[in-house]
Amino acid sequence: MRGRDQIPQPHLLVVFLSVLLTLATTSYGVNVTYDNRALLIDGKRRVLVSGSIHYPRSTPEMWADLIQKSKDGGLDVIETYVFWNAHEPVQNQYDFEGRYDLVKFIKLVGEAGLYAHLRIGPYVCAEWNYGGFPLWLHSIPGIKFRTDNEPFKVEMQRFTAKIVDMMKQEKLYASQGGPIILSQIENEYGNIDSSYGPAAKSYIKWAASMAVSLDTGVPWVMCQQADAPDPIINTCNGFYCDQFTPNSKNKPKMWTENWSGWFLSFGGAVPYRPVEDLAFAVARFYQLGGTFQNYYMYHGGTNFGRSTGGPFISTSYDYDAPLDEYGLIRQPKWGHLKDLHKSIKLCEEALVATDPVTSSLGQNLEATVYKTGTGLCSAFLANFGTSDKTVNFNGNSYNLPGWSVSILPDCKNVALNTAKINSMTVIPSFVHQSLKGDADSADSRSSSWSWINEPVGISKNDAFMKPGLLEQINTTADKSDYLWYSLSTVIKDNEPLLEDGSQTVLHVESLGHALHAFVNGKLAGSGTGNAGNAKVAVEIPVTLLPGKNTIDLLSLTAGLPNYGAFFDLKGAGITGPVKLKGLENGTTVDLSALQWTYQIGLKGEELGLSSGNSQWVTLPALPTKQPLIWYKTSFNAPAGDDPIAIDFTGMGKGEAWVNGQSIGRYWPTNVSPTSGCSNCNYRGSYSSSKCLKNCGKPSQTLYHVPRSWVESSGNTLVLFEEIGGDPTQIALATKQSAILCSHVSESHPLPVDMWSSNSEAERKAGPVLSLECPFPNQVISSIKFASFGTPRGTCGSFSHGQCRSPRTLSIVQKACIGSKSCSIGASTSTLGDPCRGVAKSLAVEASCA
Ligand code: GAL
């Protein structure tokens, strides 16, 4: 036996070395503060570009790639909300696993060398179920949300402190050497606080001091909160924030939500925001003294499960963000913003060194100069009118397209104009394949499905009776979308009115969000609200029988409200009246106050059918176009790594699970209005309904299935269909980037990468058109169109103009085919001059294989 004093020398050496190693690898905290111009990181003012990625809206397997693509796109910061109801579904029972692994997400941000902005809320809005509040919060006695209410404040503080502690324990604050440089408390309360009376003021003061007391070592922000108490920075949210000023001369001008597009609702058309306008808004913000801007969203992702808010928010949360729902780069949005970020960063030194000086160059024309005594000079020239202008600045002449900003990092040469896009456009497409690769006959397709009928009306043992009509959310606590309201009513022999051709009408009024009415076990009619008005009122002609008739009303929610004062109290479900009209001689019977039987949720939910277990049937023939059926099949994953979607065309409405994981609610029968999609011009103020596509079509047919949720073969797909559909029509699809285009004019600035080029020759060569295949191992396989002169049209539909250089196609083919990427000078020196004195451009369409 050796005593303690006998530790041999080598052990001491190991201890010593490991101490040294620990010292060397411990990252020391940085100091994050702010002044009137910017956030300061270790005493240095910074110009920062940020983007939102919400971790539960993708999978952990996707996170590193999304973060890397954000970094490659020029972001410095990743911003996310923290989703309380995901993390604490049951009071005091926490979930930080899988898609809810917040610590892992923040660590990945740090590992990529990016900063994080943690918006704890814990009210988050975000088109997320109930704005992020857990449902149990609603049932705490005496609670009132988002106001000076003790029970609410206790819970809000507990959760906020829990998250802060967790981040501290993992050393994730910048003050500890981690990536988090900023935190948010509350969310846009200033937009609605007047509804809460004087208690709003004391609540916001409390929230501010509660947050500050948690001592994160980094600044806190409140967005859209003009009265945010010191030291909390009030920040701006909106499509434009260039005119925003913070509430103190000591706070920097920050923009926490620049909406890169907009969210989609079931029943709505698909919103998009042209990148020319988005880039204009960003450039205007940095032009007029802003130093921190965040894209909401940079990656929107998917509302898996029942996580959508609304009601009626779609399962896709694509948002027209620079990274699409599936995590693919959206071009030209991503690329043009990348160029924009580089141009702004070329100005960073001047931007943080001094205050901007803005002067007018004419109507709707503004020059802003950042000039120091030490010789730094950067300038922004803006045209916020809609027509093109030529301006004179410092003795030079500059062409400014309408609604654009030119960025001059040296006060002379243009690095970028927000309306002139050098980045290529990529048009993606979905390639469909059947669920059963080998089964093409209708017979074999249907034989691969099995099913279980969901009973109409009451089927569970925990059903209960209550007189009168119950509000749905209080009743279900959102354990399920579904609540059955059931009743039997006796019709006397002489009551049915069929002889004279008139019918009885079932009248139902509901707070929403949708309902299906069954009479004597048969679907008699349905009704649904919409994003603008969740309420449902239906008048359904019904055929009653003499004697006992059953009325089973299935009421359903489609995402709980997330926005507005008292959104938590809006309620849902059939609150009545429920009446039978047109009984004998037009009499009306009001059923509202009768004894109703209630069932929360479905039998199939209780049985756990979503996992695919249980006894599924395959005989007799597959039922189609019938309501309330659970379907099951298995499928093999499409080969390759392209993102996967399921196309639910042919189905009605329901929810779907892949290998037991919910991919969300599907609703391809909810179609957008036919009008509202007329041509969208990026010039002029954007609003969420300005630019829409997909009018008159289903709002969403394709639903994302994350690659990490599927095996190469033998995957289980389960769906619950409410209305009726034909599951044999369901198909798999993979998202691929099909067509590449670019259109660059002689007056485009040089690629921003070449801005600081010393080579006179390069500078003289003029603008450059570049194409690059989006995926590794791809090369440009064909040039579908190439024209230098006056080509017309847009990507996918270019055509030659009157003026065209005959050599263009062969020059482009030679430069591009067989290569992963290629660049061609968009100038007469490369392509010849087919029409002297005419403004020319080069348009190319290519494909990769
Ligand atoms: C903001 C809110 C965000 C999100 C956004 C719309 O008002 O702060 O959480 O809901 O609107 O997408």
TrEMBL record:
<protein>
    <recommendedName>
        <fullName>Beta-galactosidase</fullName>
        <ecNumber>3.2.1.23</ecNumber>
    </recommendedName>
</protein>
<dbReference type="InterPro" id="IPR001944">
    <property type="entry name" value="Glycoside_Hdrlase_35"/>
</dbReference>
<dbReference type="InterPro" id="IPR041392">
    <property type="entry name" value="GHD"/>
</dbReference>
<dbReference type="GO" id="GO:0005975">
    <property type="term" value="P:carbohydrate metabolic process"/>
</dbReference>
<keyword id="KW-0732">Signal</keyword>
<feature type="signal peptide">
    <location>
        <begin position="1"/>
        <end position="29"/>
    </location>
</feature>
<dbReference type="Pfam" id="PF17834">
    <property type="entry name" value="GHD"/>
</dbReference>
<dbReference type="Pfam" id="PF21467">
    <property type="entry name" value="BetaGal_gal-bd"/>
</dbReference>
<comment type="similarity">
    <text>Belongs to the glycosyl hydrolase 35 family.</text>
</comment>
<keyword id="KW-0326">Glycosidase</keyword>
<dbReference type="Pfam" id="PF02140">
    <property type="entry name" value="SUEL_Lectin"/>
</dbReference>
<dbReference type="GO" id="GO:0004565">
    <property type="term" value="F:beta-galactosidase activity"/>
</dbReference>
<dbReference type="InterPro" id="IPR000922">
    <property type="entry name" value="Lectin_gal-bd_dom"/>
</dbReference>
<feature type="domain" description="SUEL-type lectin">
    <location>
        <begin position="763"/>
        <end position="849"/>
    </location>
</feature>
<keyword id="KW-0378">Hydrolase</keyword>
<dbReference type="Pfam" id="PF01301">
    <property type="entry name" value="Glyco_hydro_35"/>
</dbReference>
<dbReference type="InterPro" id="IPR019801">
    <property type="entry name" value="Glyco_hydro_35_CS"/>
</dbReference>
<dbReference type="InterPro" id="IPR017853">
    <property type="entry name" value="GH"/>
</dbReference>
<dbReference type="InterPro" id="IPR043159">
    <property type="entry name" value="Lectin_gal-bd_sf"/>
</dbReference>
<dbReference type="InterPro" id="IPR048913">
    <property type="entry name" value="BetaGal_gal-bd"/>
</dbReference>
<dbReference type="InterPro" id="IPR008979">
    <property type="entry name" value="Galactose-bd-like_sf"/>
</dbReference>
<dbReference type="InterPro" id="IPR031330">
    <property type="entry name" value="Gly_Hdrlase_35_cat"/>
</dbReference>
<dbReference type="GO" id="GO:0030246">
    <property type="term" value="F:carbohydrate binding"/>
</dbReference>
